[in-house]
Amino acid sequence: MRLAILGLGLIGGSIGLAARHRLGAEVVGFDPDPAGAELALEREACDRLAADVAGACDGAEAVFCAAPVHALPALVGAALEAAGPDAVVSDAGSVKRGLVEAVAGLGGADRFIGGHPLAGAETAGAANARADLFEGARWYLTPTAGSRGTLYDRLHGIVSELGARPEAIDAGEHDRTMATISHLPHVLANALAERAAKTLIGGERRPEVGRSFRDATRVAGANPAIWADIFTANRDAVVAEVEAVAAGLREAATVLAEGDHAAIAEWQASARERRQALLGGGVAAGPLRELRITVENRPGTVAEIALALGEAGVNIEDMSLFPAPDRRSGAISLWIAGSGEAERAAEVVRGLGHAVAPGEGG
Amino acid sequence: MRLAILGLGLIGGSIGLAARHRLGAEVVGFDPDPAGAELALEREACDRLAADVAGACDGAEAVFCAAPVHALPALVGAALEAAGPDAVVSDAGSVKRGLVEAVAGLGGADRFIGGHPLAGAETAGAANARADLFEGARWYLTPTAGSRGTLYDRLHGIVSELGARPEAIDAGEHDRTMATISHLPHVLANALAERAAKTLIGGERRPEVGRSFRDATRVAGANPAIWADIFTANRDAVVAEVEAVAAGLREAATVLAEGDHAAIAEWQASARERRQALLGGGVAAGPLRELRITVENRPGTVAEIALALGEAGVNIEDMSLFPAPDRRSGAISLWIAGSGEAERAAEVVRGLGHAVAPGEGG
Predict the structure, then answer these.
(1) Hey, is the C-beta of A257 within 8 angstroms of any chain B C-beta?
(2) Would you state the pLDDT for residue B68?
(3) For residue A8, which of A42, A62, A45 has the smallest C-alpha distance?
(4) Which among A58, A90, A207, B52 could bridge A115 via Cys, Cβ 3.0 to 4.6 Å?
(5) A323-349 pLDDT per residue, tens
(6) Contact at 8 Å (CB) between B186 and B234?
(7) Neighbours of A296 (CB within 10 A)
């Protein structure tokens, strides 16, 4: 099988590596940036480079467009033009509806099926490409009524072979879902950073910020080029979510302003249940349990704990560190899947002489 | 020196331990819950227990009220009544203005100085009390024009001896600052969990949620009893912050709806700068740098990395793990203070064979 990959960054490079190692495919790559293309070839993410889109698509059974979101409509159009009449063309963009609509009007639209692997936003560039980037990852596919069935079947098979878990979804539903679970948290992080800056910066006093603020703003201002693309492409859905949360906040403000302790406690408890229900969705080994550990923050403490848990065969699903301002002490939260595992983990950590308490929830 | 501690949970117990070990003080404790009191005595957080507030305050030079926020006005009132004319009375509540105002009308108000150590929200109960809980931690004190200077001086000294860094702040400014950096992130986490539950739960599809959602909702629904207290006591400031962020979100929605790519990218970039400016405030060793590491998620990987950094003398200031859905691979973000240290850390981690990329920012 021959694959063409147009755009040899982290995602394109990883598709190439996985396709070569796991599918035994021949991979022909193209990237408008010659340095990026060379790096991908060095990393063996493709067998050879093509000079242009047409050269890469020549003879390919599947074409993956792995370019920034704003560049995808033109690139997919060029790929449909260049690829053979039986080649499936897909992409890996984070937003789908606009692209699917743009392609619908083109000749060969029946050969295009949009895609979005939920992997790899953490790093960038072919330097970080890995053959196992998609291992176990959800990979959304957005076929339409006009998509050719045999090509969907082929794409589904390829994506599975790359190690991912393909799932068909309507492009609009995809975008709305992503708006809620990914794009909205980014907007909220920005809004919080903005508000805090307005309140706190410029005054004489610069208060230390704690873990809740760090966690809540962690993605504030994430890669402006990529995120401007995503926000622009998905603005209808994102705006709807942002407005809905703004309305939710006004309701919360009303509840808080009334100062009814029982109503506030109930609101708080329901938020806890909601988060647990949402996070529980993807976890097979049981709901996540939080362990809160108070430790000395010397170099090596995290290692000691993680190592002991590793030796005990306990996997850490998630972790958050909160150093005290003196950097000598602090708290670590660990999330462990399943109550039994969490109990076992707590025993291991207590055995190291640290205080362990159950956290507030998932 | 004799101290009285009223309320022997995590904070009260830790004050007791620190006062006994670091100040050589005699500590008399009282807690309305006999089991909690006994546990604190067993943990040696006090030298002896008193049967009531009066018994604990008898002969004490300083009295710390370490009860839930809603219980503080009555407890401080009782302590002022019971304690001698030269005893300073303080507390450790997360909200200050209401308490300070409530006490202002009482006899002996000149002997009360409010306090708030920024420590210990991670765990609860005397079982988790530690002598070094306050080591290096900011400890706000809220004297008023009516506070007796000699008693402020004494309290400042005690708090320093406990290992903390006392700082005087107006009670209202304290509450507004906490509303921004602590209480508001909790409300936003709740609002996001609420919105996502509305959108996602109940449908056929339960999408996997990623790291941005986890981080953004980590404190959603934190301890409802404690947080209902905090939200109720600080509702004026919290409501103002929530309304300000709701307004900020409506503005953001307008920018997003206009779809001006350059304006959105600028908004994104400014959020990044703002967060860095806010987090940089408390960091002595240089601004935090993020390293993103892609790893196999087998038990032991986190340990291996943390251990190698520990051996190299690099301290991990903050950490976030993001397992891939298959639990076999994932990404780790580490935050290291200072560019030089971050470079060194990256070399160490690369030496272990992991891919390292710079993160999106602080």
Answers:
(1) yes
(2) 93
(3) A45
(4) A90
(5) 555 555 667 778 887 888 888 889 998
(6) no
(7) 15
- Closest partner residue to B195 (CB to CB) among A136, A180, A279 is A180
Tell me if B272 and A191 make a contact (CB, 8 A cut-off).
Answer: no
Phi, psi of B259, deg, nearest 5: 65, 25
Nearest CA in chain B to A358: B123
Residue B168 forms contact with A (CB below 8 Å): no
Contact between A44 and A22 under an 8 Å Cβ cutoff? The reply is no
A127: which residues sit within 8 A by CB, 6+ positions away?
Answer: A39, A43, B355, B357
SS3 content of chain B, % helix, strand, coil (to 5): 50, 15, 35
- Chain A nearest C-alpha distance from B34 (Å): 21
Predicted ipTM of the assembly? 0.81
Instruction: Give A183's DSSP letter.
Output: I
pLDDT at A341: 85
CA distance A41 to A25: 15
Give the closest residue to B5 by CA, choosing from B97, B92, B69, B113.
B92
Q: Give which of B303, B298, B300 is closest to B316, Cα–Cα.
A: B303
Indicate if the pLDDT at residue B21 is higher than 80. yes
Q: What is the pTM of this model?
A: 0.82
pLDDT digits (tens, 9 = 90+) for B174-192: 999 999 999 999 999 999 9
Asked if B286 has any chain A CB less than 8 Å from its own CB, the reply is no
Q: Is B144 on the interface with A (CB under 8 A)?
A: no
Distance CA B315, CA B137 (A): 18
Contacts with A362 (C-beta within 8 Å, 6 or more apart), sequence order: A275, A276, A279, A280, A287, A288, A289, A290, A335
Mean pLDDT of the A286-292 span:
76
End-to-end Cα, chain B, rounded Å:
45
- Residue in chain A closest to B246 (alpha carbons) equals A246
CB of B252 within 8 Å of any CB in chain A? yes
Residues A115, A91 contacting (CB under 8 angstroms): yes
Q: Which residues in chain A touch residue B326, judged by CB atoms under 8 angstroms apart?
A: 135-137, 163
Tell me which residue in B231, B244, B299 faces A309 most closely, judged by beta carbons.
B299
The verdict on A37 touching B (C-beta cutoff 8 Å) is: no
Q: In A, which residues are within 8 Å of B315 by CB distance?
A: 297-299, 327
- In the prediction, which pLDDT does A298 show? 56
Rounded Cα gap, residues A301 and A309, in angstroms: 12
CA distances in angstroms from B198 to A72, A201, A305, B192, listed in the order given: 32, 35, 38, 10
pLDDT digits (tens, 9 = 90+) for B55-96: 999 999 999 999 999 999 999 999 999 999 999 999 999 999
